[in-house]
Amino acid sequence: MAKSALLVVDMQEDFCPPHGSLAVAGGREIAKSINELLSMPFAMRIATRDSHPSDHASFSTSHPPPNNKAFESRTEVVNPKNPAESMSIPIWPVHCVQGTPGAEIIPELDQSRLDRIIDKGRDKHVEMFSAFADCFGNKTSTAASFDLAKFLKEKGVGQVFVVGLTGDYCVRCTAIDAHKEGFKVFVIEEAVKSVDSGANGWGSAKTELQALGVAVIDIAGPEMQAIKLHQQQ
Q: Whole-angstrom Cα distance, residue 127 to residue 72?
């Protein structure tokens, strides 16, 4: 059996009620399920953390009105490695700014069981939902604190289990990029919450993931039983 890693995505104060600027309904509640998973014998347990500069391109405060409405407006960002390429991204409320309480991992999550934390989204010019690469697929030290795929492969990891926030954005993109990197990928549904939990949000993301070959599984399913029974080396 290949070594397995648990990726805990963006369990941060700004994504959780009651005070988060981009709070996801039920976001704090899944910490209990994630702690259960963290207690299992994964070879690696890694948390991701949005770590944005205060003037990040996705923030409503970085753009003049009227085209700066969070959840409604969009903006164009340019690929720093290919100026001819651009992408439309959503505008969000200011969230997870470096060094602020909103960027902290919530206290309900048992951080003592984490092996490492990767900071992502550090480049103000581009969006970075995935823990593996920015929205253009670039891997740079400007955007992330380390190369997650390289790190996992060096540790002999072949399977990745993804949980956290949010299913329709950062969990989705992290799972897709993990698949692109050649890992066998599982998303544990009970340990995920989404900005949009309906058909157009998590429903659409789930369909896309499954079409790619990413398994969306139950926390009590056979895949998790196999982790419990297999002491990682």
A: 16
